[in-house]
Write a structure and sequence with these properties.
Layout lengths: L1 H21 L10 E7 L8 E6 L10 E5 L4 E3 L2 E5 L2 E8 L8 E8 L10 E5 L3 E6 L2 E7 L18 E5 L21 E4 L3 E3 L2 E3 L9 E12 L4 E12 L7 E13 L5 E11 L5 E3 L6 E5 L10 E5 L15 E8 L2 E9 L10 E3 L5 E4 L7 E3 L4 E12 L4 H12 L3 E5 L3
Antiparallel strand pairs: 1-7, 1-28, 2-6, 3-4, 3-7, 5-6, 8-9, 9-10, 10-11, 12-20, 13-14, 13-19, 15-16, 16-17, 17-18, 18-27, 19-26, 20-25, 21-22, 22-23, 23-27, 24-25
């Protein structure tokens, strides 16, 4: 036992001496450390999000420092708090070849350089605005956005993302397009709902059978690795004679990562019954997590799709891909937005509605069969969004999906 204690002491002392030699850590600031090893696995990793459950010894710590051991570089790291769960999150930005490993050390205390808040989230009273390195990424609308035609006030909308930007600053999403003014940027709505024996429609507001709207902002914050926000969204039945009733309470947990040349963000949707009555999502070929592309893409020749199965607008509708990219020209250049489905999603790989003449698509999980959201249970959906300038690249999209679906393994090791 004494020999083991002495060995651990010598290892930790050596690590501290190395850090002091690098000039980035004062002995008086150092706290307990831990060594980690990231294994790339079967594919190369670059700009890849990595996370592990926060080790018990680091709980209640306000500041952690992560060092990459092979090049003595400090890496931005951030603690994620979602409910009772805490994670340690960083990004493997430089190439980690397939089959290789990379070692790190975490230290507590005021170690290293102060980490800059690369991702910012601000609330202007009507919107949550997210930026990476001062580049706009997306806006979440928590105040009501009024329809352009005031005799169509039923199209008024909140609880969705628009505008969505490319890294070069172009808006890639659309809102209130005259052809389908009920399609709004990035939204999640169900087209055909059965509640208390009545049919409901949260998708097409013109029906005035139902609506989906923002309820409250639960939290928001920025950080060196990601910025995040959480909101509550209500799915409301408008058919009850006694007045509107909320059927579903939905929480969006959105996390935007600190990547400047390509934008990457996650949306986790958690839906629960708001009453003691179940909600049935009836069978129909569209509805669910949706993105509406730029108005310039309207028309059969202005945009296209690329799926993980190599399909496009002519062949991909109602297929079941792991990811879909929609792309087209914005000004003089091509740009695209991809949605990556998580393998833990219900009915993964989920069917998709790829519209052949309008730039929108959705993961239409209800196109297979009806399903029921039961009281006391949750219906969870997870998607990662990738927004870029330039032409689509199937190999890159597949790599990003692999990063999302099968992230690198991280293990605690005793010494480097």
């Amino acid at each position: 036992m004494k020999n083991r204690t002495l060995k651990h002491f010598l290892i930790y002392s050596f690590a501290l001496l190395m850090l002091i030699q690098w000039g980035s850590l004062a002995v008086s600031e150092a706290g307990p450390g831990l060594f980690l090893e990231v294994n790339a696995g079967r594919q190369a990793r670059q700009n890849c999000v990595v996370s592990i459950p926060l080790p018990e010894q680091f709980r209640n710590q306000k500041h952690l420092t992560l060092f990459r051991l092979d090049n003595k570089q400090e890496i931005p790291v951030q603690i994620s708090q979602v409910g009772e769960q805490q994670e340690l999150v960083w990004i493997v930005k430089e190439l980690l070849p397939a089959g290789s490993t990379r070692k790190y050390q975490i230290l507590t205390g005021g170690a290293g350089t102060k980490q800059k808040e690369q991702v910012t989230v601000s609330d202007d009273g009507e919107h949550l605005n997210v930026k990476v390195a001062d580049k706009p990424v997306l806006t979440y609308n928590h105040a009501i956005v009024k329809a352009p035609q005031r005799d169509e006030a039923y199209y008024d909308k909140s609880g969705y993302i628009h505008p969505l930007y490319t890294p070069s600053g172009k808006v890639i999403s659309d809102d209130f397009n005259p052809d389908h003014p009920h399609q709004h940027g990035i939204m999640l709505s169900w087209r055909k709902i059965l509640f208390e024996g009545r049919e409901n429609n949260g998708w097409d507001q013109k029906s005035q059978l139902g609506k989906v709207e923002h309820n409250q902002v639960n939290s928001y914050s920025g950080g060196p690795v990601f910025g995040s926000f959480a909101t509550t969204i209500d799915h409301i039945d408008l058919t009850k004679k006694s007045g509107p009733v909320t059927m579903l309470k939905e929480t969006w947990q959105v996390r935007v990562y600190a990547l400047e040349e390509e934008f990457l963000f996650d949306i986790r949707s958690i839906q629960k019954c708001a009453t003691d009555k179940p909600v049935t999502i009836d069978k129909i070929h569209y509805g669910g997590m949706t993105v509406r592309g730029h108005a310039d893409w309207h028309g059969a020749d202005a945009y296209n799709y690329l799926t993980s199965e190599g399909k496009d607008k002519l062949t991909g509708n109602q297929s079941r891909p792991a990811w879909v990219e929609m792309y087209g020209r914005l000004g003089e250049e091509t740009a695209g937005v991809a949605i990556l489905g998580h393998p833990g999603n219900f009915r993964f790989p989920q069917p998709v509605r790829l519209h052949p003449t309008m730039p929108y698509f959705c993961f239409a999980v209800a196109s297979l069969d009806p399903f029921i959201i039961e009281p006391g249970k949750t219906f969870e959906s997870r998607y990662r969004f990738y927004v870029h300038d330039g032409k689509p690249d199937a190999e890159r999209d597949q790599r990003l999906w692999e990063d999302y679906a099968h992230p690198p393994q991280v293990k605690i090791i005793s010494a480097p």
